[in-house]
Amino acid sequence: MSTNQQKEHMSFLEHLEVFRWHLVRSVFAILFFAILAFIFKDIVFDSILLGPKNPNFPTYKILCYLSQQLGMGDALCMDELPFILMNISMSGQFSTHIMTSIVAGFVVAFPYVFWEMWRFIAPALHEKESSVAKGVVFFSSSLFLLGVLFGYYVVSPLSVHFLGSYQVSQTVANQISLSSFISTITTVCLANGVVFELPILVYFLTKIGLITPSFMRTYRKHALVLTLIFSSIITPPDVTSQILVALPLMVLYEISIGISARVLKKQEKQFSKQ
C-alpha cells in the first residue's frame, strides 16, 4: 500500500498526530536559527537591522547616483538621518533581542517550514496535481526570500528615511525607540515577503476555479490603483520612490496573469482529452 493510500485510511486523530510532528520539526528549525541569530547579535543588529539607519547603506548610494544622473542634483542623496535610537525600558533591549531572533529564525527557516507543511498537504493531492506542484516549495521559498530582500533593500530604507526625518515642527526632535525601529523593519520585510507570494496564490486559486486570467486582466487598472496606494503609504511622498516600489509589484501581477493563463490552458487540454 502506498503512502497516499495509507493516509487516506487514517483517522482524524492520526492525521492530527502526523501534523503535530510536522509542526514540532518546524518549530525546532525556527528555534535553531533563532538561537544562532541570538548568538550572532552583532551581525543581526549592527550589520543588518540597523543598516538602513546608516547613510552609507547601498540603497541610499544608488538613489544618490540616480538623482545625479537624472539631473535632480542631490535631491535623493542622504548625508545623515536626523534621529537617534533609544531604549526607554529596563528589559527593552533584551526583549527586542529575543523577538528579533525569533523573526530571523522564521525567515531563515521558512523554506524548511514550508516544506514540512507541504509534506503534510501533498498526500491529499491527486498524482497529476502532485507532479505539477513539485516545484512549489522552491518557488514559494524563493519568492518569499526575494520579497524580504526587496522590503529590506528598497522599502525599509525609504520608509526609515521618510518617517525618521519627518517633523511637524523644528522644535520636536525625533527620538525613536529601538523596538519601534526594529518593528518597522521586520514588519515591512515580512509584509513584502507575503506579497511576493502572489503568483503562488494565483496558481492555486486558478486551479480551484476562483480566479481566471480574464478576471485579472479586467481588474488590472484596479490592481494598479491599489498598488500605487500601497506604495504611497509605505514610501516617502515622491514619485521616484513610489515607482520603485510599485513597479516590481505590477510585474508580479503580470506574471500572475501569465501563470493563471497557463494553468487554465492545461486544464482545458485535460478536459478536451476526456
What share of the residues lie within helices?
Answer: over 70%
Order of helices and strands: HHHHEHHHEHHHHH
Shape by Cα distribution: flat
How would a crystallographer describe the biggest sheet? 2 strands, parallel
Descriptive notes:
- Helix 9 (198-207) packs parallel to helix 12 and helix 11 packs antiparallel against helix 12.
- The chain is mostly helical.
- The protein has one domain (3-196).
- The longest helix is centred in the last third of the chain and has 35 residues, at 239-273.
- A two-stranded parallel sheet has the order 1-2.
- Helix content is 75%, strand content 2%.
- The model has no long low-confidence stretch (mean pLDDT 83).
- It contains twelve helices and two strands, in the order ααααβαααβααααα.
- It is flat and about 70 Å long.
Keywords:
274 residues; mainly alpha; two-stranded parallel sheet; 2 strands
Brief characterization of the structure:
The protein has helices at 3-8, 12-39, 41-49, 58-69, 92-121, 127-132, 136-165, 178-195, 198-207, 213-218, 220-234, 239-273, and strands at residues 84-86, 175-177.
